[in-house]
Inverse folding.
C-alpha cells in the first residue's frame, strides 16, 4: 500500500498556500509601493540675452521636489534668430519681435496647464551693459520693447534686467557645481565679456570685497572669487586688438592674428563704434582700411599681451588691469566661446600639453586663408577667419592673464554641457530666483530599489519558514517506516 505523505494533510496544504500568497502579496506591495511613479513636472524659462545672440532655456523638475538636489534639468533650448538684443538699439521694437519665435516654441514645450505658474526671466549681459554705458535711453527702450513682447505670453513674467558681471560669474559657477559632483571653477568667454569664478584656498581670503560672493550649496559654505572683465569677450577683444594695430590710421594693416592671404576692407567708424575702443579712435583716419593677414601665432600673442595691463596692482596679487586674483585652485570648466573655439581647433582634450596647444595654434595660424576655406566649406566665414585670433587670445588670457601654468592648464575641461544642460549662468540664475539652490546635501535612500526588494523578499521567506517551524507541535507525526517482521 502506498505510504501517505504526512505533508499532504489539509492543514499543511492550507498553511503553505496562505504562506505563498502572503509572500507574493508582500513582495508585490513592496515593488509597487516603491516603483517610481510617473512624475508631475514644474517648469522655468530663462532668456539669455547675450551680446552676440539670445537663447531661451526651458528647465523642468519634479513638482514635489523643488528643494531637492540636482533635480532641475534643461528640457529644451531655442536659439533666437539674428543678433543680440543690444544690436536693436536703433529699432528697439525689433528686439521684442525677435523673441516671438522661441517664445512660441516655449508655449508648445511647456504643458498649457503649467503656463500660468511657469516663471519667465530675461537676463541681459555684456552687450546691454555696453549699450547702457553708451546710450542709456536706447538701452531702456530695448528693455521696454522686450518686456512688452514677453508679457504677451501666458507665462508668469518675472522681469528683464542686466546682470552684473559678478552675478554672471557667480551663477555660471552655481550651474556648473549644481550639475557636477566635484567643486569646479567656471570660465565663461562671451562675445563682450569674460568671467572667472573659483573657490580659492581658505587662507587666500579675498582682499577685494567686490570679487567675493558667499554661497551655501549642498551643505557646504563657499566663499567664491569671481570677476567679469568687460570688453574682454571674444568680439570686443578683437576690436581692441584691431584698434591697437590701427592707432596711426593706416590704409592697410598687416595682422599676425589672421591667416596669410586673408584680406578684407573694414570701416574705421564701424570698428571704433564701441565703448571698449571709442576713446582710441585715430583723429585722422581714412574711411576704410584693408585688413590683411600674416599668420604668426607668436607675433599675435605679442599683440594680445598689449591688451592686458600688468603694471598696476594694489593687492598682493593680480590677474591683469589691477584686478585682484587669488592663486588658482582646483579644476575648471571652460564653456561658451572657450568651447566653440577649442572644439573647432580639436584642442578640447585635457591631456594635450600646453606646449602642443601652442604648436598646433602656430601651425593653424600659418595655414593660408584659401586652404582654410577649402578645408571647412561649411563653417561660417566670420568664425573661420577668427579662430586663429580667438585661439591665441584664449591661450594668452589663460596663461598670461589668469596665470595658468603648463601644470594647471591640464585642469581645464572645455565643456559645452553637463548632464544634458548647457553650461552657462542661466540655470544658476533661475535656481537662485526660485530659491532652489539646495542648501543641504541630498537625502538619498539608504538602499537602491533592487536591494530593497531583495531584502524584503528574503525577510518574508524567513518569516514564512519561522512560521512553519512554529507550527511544529501540530505537525502530523512522521510515521515510521513499516517494519517487516
Ligand atoms: O556673454 P556675452 O559677452 O554677453 O556674449 P554671448 O553670450 O552672446 O556670447 P556666447 O557665449 O553666445 O558666444 C561667445 C562668442 O562666440 C561666438 N560663437 C558662437 N558660436 C561659435 C562658433 O561655432 N564658432 C566660433 N565662435 C562662435 C559668438 O559669436 C560670440 O562672439
Ligand atoms: Ca554669455
Amino acid at each position: 500500500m502506498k505510504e501517505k505523505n504526512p505533508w499532504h494533510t489539509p492543514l499543511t496544504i492550507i498553511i503553505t498556500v496562505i504562506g505563498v500568497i502572503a509572500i507574493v502579496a508582500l513582495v508585490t506591495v513592496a515593488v509597487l509601493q516603491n516603483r517610481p511613479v510617473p512624475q508631475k513636472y514644474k517648469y522655468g524659462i530663462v532668456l539669455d540675452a547675450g551680446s552676440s545672440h539670445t537663447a531661451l532655456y526651458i528647465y523642468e523638475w519634479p513638482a514635489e521636489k523643488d528643494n531637492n538636489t540636482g533635480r532641475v534639468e534643461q528640457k529644451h533650448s531655442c536659439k533666437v534668430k539674428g543678433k543680440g538684443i543690444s544690436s536693436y538699439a536703433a529699432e528697439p521694437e525689433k528686439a521684442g519681435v525677435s523673441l516671438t519665435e522661441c517664445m512660441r516654441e516655449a508655449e508648445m514645450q511647456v504643458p498649457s496647464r503649467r503656463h500660468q505658474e511657469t516663471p519667465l526671466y530675461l537676463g541681459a549681459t555684456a552687450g546691454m551693459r555696453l549699450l547702457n554705458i553708451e546710450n542709456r535711453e536706447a538701452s531702456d527702450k530695448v528693455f521696454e520693447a522686450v518686456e512688452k513682447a514677453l508679457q504677451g505670453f501666458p507665462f508668469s513674467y518675472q522681469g528683464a534686467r542686466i546682470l552684473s558681471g559678478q552675478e554672471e560669474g557667480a551663477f555660471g559657477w552655481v550651474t556648473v557645481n549644481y550639475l557636477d559632483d566635484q567643486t569646479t571653477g567656471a570660465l565663461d568667454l562671451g562675445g563682450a565679456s569674460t568671467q572667472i569664478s573659483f573657490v580659492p584656498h581658505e587662507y587666500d581670503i579675498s582682499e577685494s570685497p567686490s570679487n567675493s560672493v558667499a554661497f551655501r550649496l549642498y551643505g557646504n559654505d563657499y566663499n567664491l572669487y569671481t570677476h567679469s572683465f568687460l570688453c574682454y569677450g571674444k568680439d570686443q577683444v578683437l576690436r581692441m586688438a584691431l584698434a591697437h594695430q590701427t592707432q596711426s590710421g593706416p590704409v592697410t594693416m598687416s595682422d599676425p592674428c589672421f591667416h596669410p592671404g586673408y584680406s578684407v576692407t573694414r570701416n574705421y567708424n564701424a570698428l571704433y563704434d564701441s565703448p571698449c575702443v571709442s576713446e582710441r579712435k585715430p583723429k585722422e583716419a581714412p574711411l576704410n582700411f584693408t585688413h590683411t593677414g600674416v599668420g604668426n601665432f607668436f607675433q599675435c600673442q605679442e599683440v594680445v599681451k598689449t591688451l592686458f595691463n600688468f603694471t598696476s596692482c594694489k593687492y598682493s596679487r593680480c590677474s591683469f588691469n589691477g584686478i585682484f586674483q587669488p592663486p588658482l585652485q582646483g579644476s575648471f570648466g571652460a564653456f561658451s566661446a572657450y568651447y566653440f573655439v577649442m572644439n573647432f581647433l580639436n584642442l578640447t582634450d585635457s591631456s594635450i600639453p600646453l606646449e602642443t596647444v601652442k604648436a598646433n595654434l602656430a601651425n593653424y595660424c600659418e595655414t593660408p586663408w584659401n586652404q582654410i576655406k577649402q578645408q571647412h566649406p561649411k563653417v561660417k566665414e566670420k568664425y573661420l577667419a577668427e579662430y586663429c585670433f580667438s585661439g591665441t587670445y584664449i591661450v594668452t588670457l589663460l596663461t598670461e592673464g589668469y596665470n595658468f601654468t603648463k601644470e594647471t592648464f591640464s585642469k581645464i575641461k572645455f565643456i559645452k554641457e553637463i548632464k544634458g544642460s548647457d553650461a552657462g549662468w542661466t540655470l544658476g540664475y533661475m535656481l537662485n530666483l526660485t530659491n532652489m539652490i539646495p542648501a543641504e546635501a541630498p537625502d538619498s535612500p539608504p538602499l537602491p530599489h533592487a536591494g530593497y526588494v531583495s531584502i524584503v523578499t528574503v525577510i518574508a521567506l524567513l518569516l514564512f519558514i519561522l512560521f512553519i517551524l512554529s507550527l511544529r507541535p501540530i505537525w502530523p507525526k512522521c510515521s515510521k517506516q513499516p517494519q517487516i517482521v
Remarks:
- Residues 50-53, 84, 125-127, 190-193, 233-235, 336-337, 340-341, 344, 383 surround inosine 5'-triphosphate (ligand 1) (CB under 6 Å).
- Residues 125 and 163 are 6 Å apart (CA to CA).
- The longest strand covers residues 220-230.
